Amino acid sequence: MADTPATDRSTDSSAIDQADDSSDPRSRGEQFSDLTGRFVHGVELAAAALFALLFGIGVVDLALQIAESVPTGEITDPNVVIGFIETGLLLLIIVEVYQTVVAYIEQSNTRRIVRLVIYTGVIAMVRKVIIFRTTEYPTTQDALFAAVAYGTVILGLVALLFVERSVGPSMKG
């Protein structure tokens, strides 16, 4: 059986050139996409490791602060205790951000990621309210403006959380 151009296109150089021309941009694009995807995944892993490290350092630091305040009696000072609570809430924010990064790495559904971001926002705003001191503002009006802003953000986050929980179960994804 003799090879003819109609039956064997593998020897036809113009057919090879056409196949190469049409597949080159796509394969280069796919290669670039794979490369950038691996890069982003590596950065996500590095970010997760960094947040885990920050959390570990923060826990040790908080434990040391508490241990140092017990012998001096500062543990009974309300401002010192509020400082511990502030640090603890900051650690919870770090955990929530870590979980958000892990959710991205695991390619979790968008609803889980949104829920984690809302929880992080709630914790952050509760932290701001706990450490809120009117004496830190130049005027009473500035303190009032900050308090109203915090309250507005908290109400917005609570509304988002309510919507996510009430509408969420009926949504797919």
Total DSSP E strands:
0
Task: Report the C-alpha radius of gyration, rounded.
Answer: 28 Å
Morphology: extended
How helical, in percent, are the residues?
Answer: over 70%
Most strands sheet: none
Structural class: mainly alpha
Straight-line distance between termini? 57 Å
Strand content: under 5%
Chain-averaged pLDDT: 82
Write the layout of secondary structure elements.
Layout: H1 13-72, H2 78-105, H3 110-130, H4 140-167
Report what the structure shows.
This protein has 173 residues and is mostly helical. 79% of the residues lie in helices and 0% in strands. The protein contains 4 helices and no strands. The chain is extended. The chain starts with 12 loop residues before the first helix and ends in a 6-residue tail after the last helix. The model is unreliable at 1-11 and 13-23 (pLDDT under 50).
In short:
The chain has 173 residues and is mostly helical. It is built from 4 helices and no strands. The longest helix has 60 residues.
How would you describe this structure in keywords?
mainly alpha, 79% helix, disordered N terminus
